[in-house]
Amino acid sequence: MKINAKFSSLKNLCKILQLNDLQQYHKFLIALSNINAEKIIDELHRHDKIPVVCGGTGLYLKALTGGISEGTDYDPAYREELMMLRAENGNQYIYTMLEQKDPVSAGRMLPQNWKRVIRALEVLEFTGKPIWEHHNKSENKDDYRFFYFVLNPEREKLYSRINLRVDEMIKNGLANEVKSLLNLGYHYSKNNCLNTVGYKEIIECIEGKHDFESAVDLIKRNSRRYAKRQMTWFRSVKDTVFIDSENKQERLEMIINVISD
User: Fold this and answer.
1) Structural domain boundaries enclosing 114
2) Which of 128, 132, 174, 254 lies 20 to 30 Å (CA to CA) from residue 10?
């Protein structure tokens, strides 16, 4: 199944590992953690090269630079099962489940903190690893210093590019891709990774909630809003460098100057 995402490249500057096919959409974060990005970074450093990671959302970057702990995806059906068990049997019941499966995490929380208990159980179920291992991974991501270089074009130019990008996605068959996913049994109501801009609007169109033209307009609007949220997120991240220039050579020189200091 082809994923409708565009991966950028920096020719003659770095080698990029591309991931463009994920058979299990509802476990895409596990696939993300298994692409061995850290090993590639280590290998490049051994050859005195500076790794450049291009593209991706804030979640992908957080996974690489800080690990995934509380942001780990989950199985909605399993969460519903745990919620029902708690409703029927009380907090102590699900806490005992955690004690049996992950005593280390259970020892760090109380039965009345049932949301944390459920979170620990579903992380273990979804990833196969206890939540404390994810926390440790997050805390130990201090081997390297990361710089975030964010292209910051004028808003009108950015929004125009977003609109053109959506038109390109539609032309390349986004609707047919979504239909194929629905035929495979995927849906944003139970697969969180489809609860994203582009997929959700087309699904709702297929279900009769919007006509096709309105769905496309919604994708463009929601993509613009998402871009705005991304910029807000990057402004809160340490070592983020915003690049305003549209000139490629000026951009490159600015990046080189920052990483050379």
Assistant:
1) 76-139
2) 174
